[in-house]
Amino acid sequence: MLVNGQHYRTIWIKPDDPRVVQIINQHVLPHRFEIVDLTTVDEVAVAIRDMLVRGAGLIGATAGYGMYIAALNAPTGSREAFLAALEADGKTLKATRPTAINLEWAVARQLDAIRAGDTILEMIEIARQTAIAIADEDADFCRRIGEHGVALIEEISARKGGEPVNILTHCNAGWLAFVDYGTATAPIYAAHDRGIPVHVWVDETRPRNQGAQLTAWELGQHGVPHAVIADNVGGHLMQHGMVDLVITGTDRTTHTGDVANKIGTYLKALAARDNQVPFYVALPSSTFDWVTRDGVKEIPIEERNPDEVTHIQGLYQGEVVQVQLTPQDSPARNYAFDVTPARLVTGLITERGICEANEASILALYPEHRQGAGGRT
Ligand code: MRU
Questions:
Q1: How confident is the model at residue 5 (pLDDT cuts 50, 70, 90)?
Q2: Which of 52, 271, 370, 377 could form a disulfide with 235 if both were Cys (CB 3.0 to 4.6 A apart)?
Q3: In CATH, what is the architecture of 2-137?
Q4: What would the pLDDT profile of 330-347 be if each residue is shown by its tens digit?
Q5: 251 is catalytic
Q6: pTM of the model
Q7: Three-class secondary structure of residue 3 per DSSP
C-alpha cells in the first residue's frame, strides 16, 4: 500500500544485502516512518514480542523470514546440528506471542519445507523461498479477501442510494498487520478504489491504540475518509443508525467459528447483534485453528505488560514519549485479546469467499481440512 505515494510492503529482504530482512517499525508510527534491519533470530523475536511488527499475518510472515535468518546463522557442521538449531530458533520465535496462530503455522511450514532439502546450502535456499512464498501468499490472500468483501459494501451502498457506507473497525487489521492490503481493510480499499463512497469509524483500541495510530494513518495515506473514535463509542453509533457494517480482523479463528481478536471486539459484536448491524470478520486461511473447537475456553489469551495500560505513548515536542495515566501505585492488568463466540458473527470473509461462522460452512470452503479438523494434527 501507499506511504507518501510510494508502494511498500511491511517486510522484505534488503535489495542489496540478502542477509538482511527489513521491516517498518510500527512502534513509532504514525509519528515517524522508520525502517529497521533484522539480522539475527534474537532481533526478530524482539521485533515480534515488542510489537515493532504485529498483526496476525505480519507476525506469520516475520516468523517465516525469521526462520530464513535462522538458517543463515545456523551451524553448518552437520545436517543434524543445522536442523537442531533451526528447531530451537523456531521455539524461540513461537514463544514470543501466544494468541496469533499464524506464528506457529509459519514456523511449522518453514521446518517442513527445510527438512526436504538435501544439502545445507539447499536448505538455506528453501528457507529463503518459503519466507517469500509465505509473504506473497499473505498479500495475495488479502487482495482476494478484498475482492470477496467488497460485494457486501456494494450491496449496502446500492441500498443507501450511493450515500457513504459507514464501516466500523477495531484495532488494526490493515496492511500494516499483514504484508499488504490487510484483511478488514481490504474490502474497504477495494470499495474506495472503485469509487464507492465509504467512511470508516476507527476504534482507538486501547491500550496500545493500534486503531488511532495505525489504522487511521494507513487509511489517511490511501485517502479513505475516516474518523477515530474512543473505544466505547461504537454502541452509541449503532443505536443511532450510524454504522452499516462492522468488519474486524482476527488473530485466530477456530474451525467452529469462534473469533479471537483484539480486546474489546466481543463488546462490539454484542452491540452489533443488539442493533441488527452485520458483524463480519475477515481472515486468510492461515488464521484458522483447525484443532481447537471451543475458542472461549481453549484459545490462549496473551497477557501483556501492564505498563501498556498505565502509560500512553504520543508525540511531545517532536519526540515519541510515554506518559503515566494512572496513580503510581494502582495495579493494572493487560489482557490483549478476547473471543467472540461464533453465534455473534454474521460471516467470515476469506480468500476463498464468504461463509458462515460455523464448522459446516467453514469446512465446505476448506474441504482439505475435513480429515484433520478437531484432531491433534
Ligand atoms: O496485538 P496486535 O496488534 O498484534 O493484535 C493484532 C491485531 O492487530 C488485531 O487483533 C487485529 O484485528 C487482528 S488481524 C491482524
A1: confident
A2: 271
A3: Up-down Bundle (1.20)
A4: 999 999 999 999 999 999
A5: yes
A6: 0.94
A7: strand
